[in-house]
Amino acid sequence: METKPPLSPFTRETAKTQVQAAEDAWNTRDPKRVALAYTEDSQWRNRAEFLSGR
């Protein structure tokens, strides 16, 4: 995957914050809010399926 500078600082705390935001969005069960928790170039894997994007 290619990086696009400038990247924000990535620390253990920022990672935890991002994961918590995604989890909170999923828990709302609102598809629009869930999608906003991920970047447009996210890569997803569901068993044998591979998807990309929101």
UniProtKB/TrEMBL annotation:
Q: Which InterPro entries match?
A: DUF1348, NTF2-like_dom_sf
Q: Which Gene3D superfamilies match?
A: 3.10.450.50
Write the signal peptide boundaries. Answer: none
Q: Which PANTHER family match?
A: SLL0781 PROTEIN
Protein name in the entry: DUF1348 family protein
